[in-house]
Amino acid sequence: MAYFWYKAFHIVGFVVWFAGLFYLVRLFIYHVEAGEQPEPAQTILKNQYQIMEKRLYKIITTPGMIVTVAMAIGIVTTEPEVLKQTWLHIKLGLVVVLIGYHHYCGRLLKQLAEDRCTWSSQQLRALNEAPTLLLVVIVLLAVFKNSLPLDITTWAVVGLIITMAATIQLYAKKRKRDQEKLQNEVPQQEAQQTI
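The line above is the sequence of Protoporphyrinogen IX oxidase; the predicted structure tokens follow.
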């Protein structure tokens, strides 16, 4: 019975953890883009994003990570023979990478608070896709275990990476076009007002 309790809360933990990671970096993007706003909007937005980021990281994301890891340890204690399986070694390696990503986000949070983050919003958009890739592979390993079809999985992950990269690039082009359009409209409106 303990196995099912550990597994249930392990799933709850990683849902909370991933939700926090996805939203956290999205807030970082908005925080960086707030720097493009005129004052006083820039200061107001940056302060608000800083509060939201800090609360999300400390109250939701980090506890989600702790619950996930603690429940995983609980699961392993109920069936220690699973530690001998290759799929779990790979999964644990990816979880270590994810924990590193989590702590790197904490570092970016501090840099943003001190206004010394050098990441652009487009770079942060790319960074925001990393947990998606990790989530896909980790879930596939948990479901398929040692019978995971590596050829199909490899192509699916490569396809996902290409799709994400293309989407980020297309969005960047769209944002640039929208900004150019907005800049062109302002002089036209000013000229109409003077007539």
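Note on the example: The mean pLDDT is 91. Helices lie at 2-34, 41-78, 86-113, 121-127, 130-144, 150-194.
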